[in-house]
Amino acid sequence: MMDNSKIARDIIDSIGGDENIIRAWHCVTRLRFHVNEEAEVNVDRIREIPGVMGAQFQNGQFQVIIGNKVSDVFKELNSMISAETKDNQSGQKKNLVSSFLDMISGVFSPVIPAIAGAGMMKGILALMQVLGWVSVESDAYQVLTIISDAAFYFLPFLLAVSAAKRFQVSEYLSIALAGALLYPTITNGVASGEEGLQFLGLSVSFISYSATVIPIILAVWVLSYVFKWVNAIVPAALRVILTPTFVFLIMIPFTLIVAGPIGFVIGDYVGIGVAWLYEAIGPFAGILIGGLLPLFVVTGMHYGFAPIILQNMGRYGYDAAILPLNIVNSLAQSGAAFAVALRTKNKKMKSIAVSSGISAFLGVTEPAVFGVNLKLKRPLYATMAAGAVGGGMAVFFGVKCFGFVVQGVEAFPVYIDPDNAMNLVYTGLSILAAFVIAFVLTLVFGFKDEVEEGEQPILSKADDTDTAAAPEDIASPLTGKVVPLSEVPDKTFSDEVLGKSVAIMPADGVLVAPFAGTVAMVYPTKHAIGLRSENGLELLIHIGLETVNLEGKYFELKVEQDQKVEKGQELVLFDGTSITNEGYNLVTMVIITNGSQFPEMESTKATEISKNEKLFFKANN
Q1: Among residues 118, 177, 175, which one has the least CA distance to residue 148?
Q2: Domain harbouring 34, CATH code
Q3: Per-residue pLDDT at 39 exceeds 90
Q4: Nearest-angstrom CA–CA distance, 112 and 81
């Protein structure tokens, strides 16, 4: 099993660091980069990284060949590179939800260390109070309270900086907007109960913006557009003085009159809406969200909970909606991973399951999710069931979390409630239930174990009907000329880096299924498709070279991922003439990507081939 995070980090370091990356994206088999300085890229070093199949400069790009795990490695790499690089990536259009989640992640991730440190301090202070080590009337308590509250009270300042970086606008102008929201006139007005101010006939309301989230993010987002507009109309010689002056004249009133109040109301109603959900259906909300949380992590949607958590922290001083479910999820992921470690016969998987189980136990679940549970599927289902039970218990007991910290067992101090000693007990019961249920269900229902080289697959009882026998033959998905691999102008394909391969120059634009099986993968740009036979053989069909750059133009997909297909069924229609006229080589690669499991398969020696004729076949068949 590849350590995707280490591979990603080693690639970034060998490319010359984050600062040498202009743009990063991926296709079906390789990571692709535009770099500032090609001389900074250590190609030989990258080729030596375990898990990397090859590396090359081609068509103005630097390409790192990973194979069918490329999307997993890219997820790790994408989390490590800067927001500026991410903004230039791939050029693929994202839907509104994806764009929102990317924005939330980009804005909140940088401030997590500050709020996590402050949150843990809150837990430590509560523990000291319960143990009688500090009195609430003491000066020490007041100082410790400042330490634990400062990051939350001045959260708009922290978010102003991270939002400025995300929206690519001046951090200093953004901080000034946060300063307007927390200016003494505003905060004193709130404390005294005054009605507000009037400016040009408009009302400036006195609102408490401490610990708020949405007002400053909304203001900085608008600032990013206003600054560009003002800067474009101000003469270059006067921009240093006049641009910030005009920006402040526009943005600070806008922030106080429009963005602040609107953002405050939105945030308030988000918190009210979540509270209503929990009041309306009680523990069922915990069951629902707790059960689905593993899927939220897989899709990245869990980042969307950050504003809700911080809104609750600012409004109530604790969160009882999301964080308790997070710690339940962490222990469920850990329990399933440890069960995999106990049951698997694969030494590499055992090692990964143990290390990722410990990681999840400490609140970092991604290694367990992507490296073990999602990969093996049934352990993920076990974590969902365990999360539903543990989440329902947490909500039923009314568990409260008093600090925004990594949700592992080390987070116990932030669950100490000086007014309710049982809060910590209920937390322990909820996470213990999640851990045990995930562990037991994974052991009981099992999973299809990974096969080590030279071994036969270890099957769970539910999988004992599966077979590792190769299909009798694999038909050609195209009609056309069989091109010698030595004539394919891409060494990744010509050297069969990805597996046993055949190259075909299509005579028409119809790609059909070469066997009965399942569509295992469909790339968004439609130029490549992955298939899995009923017997487990995995086939990658890549139409043309570098056709990922067409972004789906001239391709029509006739199937979807996970769809069952029959031999000869149409998969993709493509306009070969137009693709060729765009300057792309139409040679199509058909590759057995897990050929080590089927060493008996040989490829055709024919020079011309038609659909449904044998392309790969068993030796001596």
Answers
A1: 118
A2: 3.30.1360.60
A3: no
A4: 17
Q: What is the mean pLDDT of residues 238-256?
A: 90
Same domain, 305 and 441: yes
Dihedral, CA of residue 4, residue 10, residue 13 and residue 17, to nearest 10: -10
Domain end point (choices 395, 429, 445)? 445
Q: Is residue 100 part of a domain?
A: no
Catalytic residues: 27, 542
4-15 vs 70-80: helix axis angle to the nearest 10?
60
Higher pLDDT: 612 or 440? It is 440
Which has more pLDDT, 334 or 96? Answer: 334
Mean pLDDT, rounded, of the chain: 82
Q: For residue 235, give the 3-state DSSP assignment.
A: coil
pLDDT of 452 over the 70 cut: no
Among 252, 277, 302, identify where a domain stops. Answer: 277
Q: How confident is the model at residue 457 (pLDDT cuts 50, 70, 90)?
A: very low
Kindly report the length of the chain: 621
Give mean pLDDT, residues 5-16. 90
Question: For the segment 71-104, what is each residue's pLDDT rounded down to a tens digit?
Answer: 788 888 888 876 545 555 444 444 455 456 556 6
Q: Please tell me whether residues 511 and 392 are part of one structural domain.
A: no
Range(s) of the domain holding residue 525: 473-618
Does residue 586 share a domain with residue 506?
A: yes
Backbone angles phi, psi at 113, to 5 degrees: -55, -40
> Which amino acid, 523?
Y
- Residue (of 403, 411, 344, 398) closest to 371 by Cα position: 344
- Kindly report the CATH number assigned to the domain that includes residue 592: 2.70.70.10
Q: Is residue 102 part of a domain?
A: no
Give the DSSP letter string of 244-265.
HHHHHHHHHHHIIIIIHHHHHH
Q: Are residues 573 and 437 in the same domain?
A: no
Please state, in angstroms and rounded to a whole number, the distance separating the CA atoms of residues 590 and 587: 10
In a shared domain, residues 525 and 611: yes
The contacts found for 564-569 with CB under 8 angstroms, 24 or more apart, are 564/516, 564/517, 564/518, 565/513, 565/516, 565/517, 565/518, 565/519, 565/531, 566/513, 566/516, 567/475, 567/513, 567/514, 567/515, 567/516, 567/612, 568/475, 568/512, 568/513, 568/611, 568/612, 569/512, 569/513
3-state class (DSSP) for residue 386 = helix
**214 in the same domain as 168:** yes
Do residues 497 and 609 share a domain? yes
Domain total of the chain? 4
Tell me whether residue 128 is in a domain.
no
Cα torsion through 357, 359, 361, 364, rounded to 10: -120
In the chain, % of residues over pLDDT 70: 86
Select the more confidently predicted residue: 143 or 278.
Answer: 143
Q: Which of 461-475, 505-519, 536-550, 594-608 has the lowest mean pLDDT?
A: 461-475
Identify whether residues 262 and 294 lie together within a single domain.
Answer: no
pLDDT in tens, 183-236: 999 888 888 888 888 888 888 888 888 877 788 989 999 999 999 899 889 888
- Distance between alpha carbon 30 and the CA centroid of its chain, in Å? 18
Amino acid 66 reads I
Tell me if 553 is assigned to some domain. Answer: yes
Nearest of 499, 506, 540, 502 to residue 523 by alpha carbon: 540
